[in-house]
Amino acid sequence: MKKLLLVFLLIGPTVFSQQELKEKTYFSEELFFHLSDYNRKADLAYRFNDYEKGRELFEDFTSTHLEGSYMDNFKFRNLKKKEVQLYDFKKPVFLITYASWCIPSKGEVPALNELASEYRDQVDFVVLFWDKRDKVKKLAEKFSSDISIVYVDESQNNGAYVVKQLKHSLGLPTCFLLSGTKKIMDIRRSVFPPLHTEEETAYRENYIALETSISKNLVNSFNEVYADNVITE
Q1: 195 CB-near residues (< 8 Å, 6+ apart)
Q2: Residues 62, 130: one domain?
Q3: Which residues form the Thioredoxin domain (predicted)?
Q4: Of residues 154, 159, 153, 124, the one with CA closest to residue 28
Q5: Cα(221)–Cα(92) distance, integer angstroms
Q6: Peptide bond into 173 cis (omega under 30)
Q7: What pLDDT is recorded for position 162?
């Protein structure tokens, strides 16, 4: 009995680690296996102007296949032209993707600026533009200094698979909420209030939607990591 117990103690952690490693999947892998099926169904829904069905398909696809996977480490540049990697950000990350031809919804930028100010000690806010640096530099003026503005210029980037799919697979803008280990906790699209909505109302709608997701998915993640570090120390 003692020998069996000793064997279990010796191989148990190794087996567990291998199993844990096997279960860890990445964003790029999930897209490879499941994106084409989602696109086929979504294209059919939008062809018949069934936008509610399209929204349901998006939420089902992201919650079933993408959330829980880990975002691949990929490269982009900041406004100083310095190459930066996603994993350089050590806190949980709120990542939102834009392009110069994709206008943020009404009230979205003020809401992001406010949230970045409130949660800057716990969350890294990153706005990723798919565009040339000159255009991005002008657009960056709207955002708070608490937000990291980065870009990928595809004309200068051969592009890893994940970079291409981040832009083209889920549309723009798309928000990715990543834990400190870059596990995808939530994926959401921006709130788009009707055009006649008052600016303050639009800001409030965006703020509430984003703050709810950030506090649930990212702040809790930060607190868990912080607590683990305190216990370890």
Answers
A1: 106
A2: no
A3: 65-213
A4: 159
A5: 7
A6: yes
A7: 67
